[in-house]
Amino acid sequence: MSDIFRFDIEEQTLTKEKVKLKRPSKYRVIILNDDFTPMEFVVWILQVVFHRSRAESQQIMLKAHITGKALCGVYSHDVARTKVIQVQQLAEQHGYPLHCTMEVEEGEEES
Ligand code: TYC
């Protein structure tokens, strides 16, 4: 929050205007389970696209496998969108139905 002071010459008054500054929204990228994509491919995707360690990638993959979805990371809108597209392209190139989505962080407004 910052204040802008405006001096109005005609009215000879000093007014204070509140300006709300919004932090850019952050987006969660979520990987979704399916019955066909090999586990090892998902682990590879998590390492290559999301720069996760092998151990982290195995844990994330297993979480998605068991619960249906798992968090890959939290990014700005453009980075999240690029990662979703990269996953989609790599999955398509290899003929797998692997999918991921992005959703705005809780408590953040979509801008
Ligand atoms: N369920 C897949 C299998 O049994 C593996 C898998 C895990 C696929 C996580 C997608 O996000 C995923 N081969």
TrEMBL record:
Stretches assigned to the Adaptor protein ClpS core domain: 22-101
Keyword Hydrolase attributed: yes
A family per Pfam: ClpS
GO biological process, one term: proteolysis
Keywords associated with the record: Hydrolase, Protease
Keyword Protease: yes
GO molecular function: peptidase activity
NCBIfam families named among the record's database cross-references: PRK00033.1-5
HAMAP family: ClpS
Function: Involved in the modulation of the specificity of the ClpAP-mediated ATP-dependent protein degradation.
Oligomer and partners: Binds to the N-terminal domain of the chaperone ClpA.
Family, similarity comment: Belongs to the ClpS family.
Entry protein name: ATP-dependent Clp protease adapter protein ClpS
Species the sequence originates in: Leptospira ellisii
Lineage: Bacteria, Pseudomonadati, Spirochaetota, Spirochaetia, Leptospirales
